[in-house]
């Protein structure tokens, strides 16, 4: 075998997955068709649990240093402003950071860990058998083949891996087209210098502005024809009462749509898919990166455990059963947003927006929507041990005092191992999980308002089991350890 896992695609999802697999003790190789990162950014922000997940690996500080602004309180639903600052305890955090910087920082993490990334390597086909996966790749030296135990397609919406694995991608076709340009303006003009401009210009820094024009999807569009500046200019004129914008140049021109699709299965034998390879949708509200990164954090430790040999048989399948419903939720709210702001929006849609706008200023609808959009209320099914209200939820961020000093939930998860957090105050669980000590750290700690007497936290930061009883042996703990961390030694 050339690697334990071949990851196809060094976008954000592939890079996080590679780091997580490395932390889990597996040897991944990442194959990326581009010779070098483009330096261009689809996403301009990172919002939701992916931000918290980076903190739980000790990487968030790097992102905060590069972020233009942290915007924890403002979001929108189909451009209807949402004020998250009204809500206590929501836990929504975000960073205004361009995707190119996000990818640079994830590449840096992978480099520090020593993950092998082969650039200029395009995967063209893939075949699996009982023992592994053979990947056909076209690299700088020409065609070749790689063999690995598993392959994961993180190769974006047009995923070759998904198609080669025969995974269906059902969904709905586009109804509108968005033409995007990252442009400069003539003579260092700013939007304030241009009277009556009806198209929004988002400042990107270094004199660049992002302009996006939405129109009904043209029946005769050739999607393979490269987008040109003339095409963008014509769309701007149509949207801007026949007037031009004084554009002097563009570093990126692209088209995208409201088409939304989701893979029917995230796993086919030894082949898995994650990120845009598994789900595409309108990038309304910016849920794409968040969802892809959370796929990677969910899959990394499970696939790592499978490669290491200690994973219970159902663990890898729980990647699909946990993440597919989360992808469905993203399609749900982005389709709704597309309906509310699409190019075909007429007086009926305008009326609906007018009714919805004030409703979304009330706390409970606001909380419901933000939980949905940023996966803040995700609850995975933790099976028979699922008795405590925290089971399956994102583990609470706690300030902890241990015999060796002050720490936090986030810091305890830096090594990407399981954590049994004993908050009984008596160290009652000191001897628990002894059979799992190569996979689970047991930490006794005090915290001001413990949310439970003990918590078993998975490497991806979700609670596998919790109890309010401070007795040992703790009911259901051994069972939960076996479900999520395999047989004891
Ligand atoms: C205009 C726009 C704005 C957006 N804004 C936001 C936002 O604000 N917030 C947000 O969260 N999301 C946003 N998104 C969505 C976000 O950009 C994507 O969800 C994200 O890039 C998905 O990451 P990924 O790693 O799964 O896939 P990708 O970023 O598509 O990466 C796939 C990688 O695989 C490589 N690859 C493909 N095929 C092969 C092959 N055969 N062999 C080898 N390598 C291959 C590609 O070169 C690429 O590097 C936006 C999207 C668009 C279009």
UniProtKB/TrEMBL annotation:
Superkingdom: Bacteria
Its Gene Ontology molecular function terms?
A: monooxygenase activity
Keywords attached to this entry: FAD, Flavoprotein, Monooxygenase, Oxidoreductase
Query: Which Pfam families does this one have?
Result: FAD_binding_3, Rng_hyd_C
Give start and end of each FAD-binding domain.
2-331
The cofactors it requires, by name, are: FAD
Q: Tell me yes or no: is Methyltransferase among this UniProt entry's keywords.
A: no
Q: Is the Ribonucleoprotein keyword given for this protein?
A: no
The protein, known as: FAD-dependent monooxygenase
Source species taxonomy: Bacteria, Bacillati, Actinomycetota, Actinomycetes, Kitasatosporales
